Amino acid sequence: MKRFLCAVFALMLLCTTALSEGFDLSTMTDDELLALKEAVDSEVDSRGLLTSEYEPWDEYGLAQYLPSLSKIVGRELKSSVYGYNFDTSFAGNFEGMSRGDFDEYVKALKAYGYINEASSSPYSFEGTNDDGIKVSAFLIGDSITISAYKVD
User: Do 144 and 101 contact (CB within 8 A), yes or no?
Assistant: First the structure.
């Protein structure tokens, strides 16, 4: 399951990168798609995901409106990877996490005001804040996956 999620995450990264750069995937030739893939690959790690070398990821884009996971868990996220962080959307997967880390992050999300239309289970949380940002967090094995987007 984890391998499947990483593959989906890599595909999301490729499509998001293309769209953010103004590419129309439906009209691109095979050579153009290959060049785009090579450009993305040059910026990713062996799993096909952007690495934490771009930190501090939580100081720009939509992530700046989310609690800092590294501050919540009290350690640098050396094994962290993330897919994208734009002004209107964010997705990230952070490895080496525990159930306790997840519970603390959910508490922080609630403290940040993500309490509207909120729902949770032992391994998931979803909520919206007053600014219209919807966040979802999931604990999958030893990874916390976070996604957020601006609701219009």
Answer: yes
What are the residue ranges in the chain where pLDDT is below 70?
Answer: 1-28, 30, 32-58, 77-82
Q: Residue 125, by phi and psi: left (phi above 0), alpha (psi -120 to 50) or beta?
A: beta
| Contacts for 52 with CB less than 8 Å, ≥ 6 apart | 77, 78, 79, 80, 81, 82
Q: Tell me the CA end-to-end span of the chain in Å, nearest whole number.
A: 32
Determine the residue type at 126: E
- Residue 86 burial (CB count, 10 A): 16
For residues 110 and 77, the answer to whether their CB atoms sit within 8 Å is no
Give pLDDT tens digits for 99-132.
999 999 999 999 999 999 999 999 999 999 999 9
In this structure, are residues 57 and 92 in contact, taking their beta carbons and an 8 Å threshold? yes
Q: How many domains does the chain have?
A: 1
pTM: predicted TM-score of the whole model, two decimal places: 0.65
Q: Which residues span the domain enclosing 11?
A: 2-150
- By the 10 Å C-beta count (0-12 exposed, 13-18 middle, 19+ buried), 149 is classed as middle
| CB proximity list for 102: less than 8 A, separation 6 or greater | 123, 137, 139, 144
pLDDT recorded at residue 13? 53
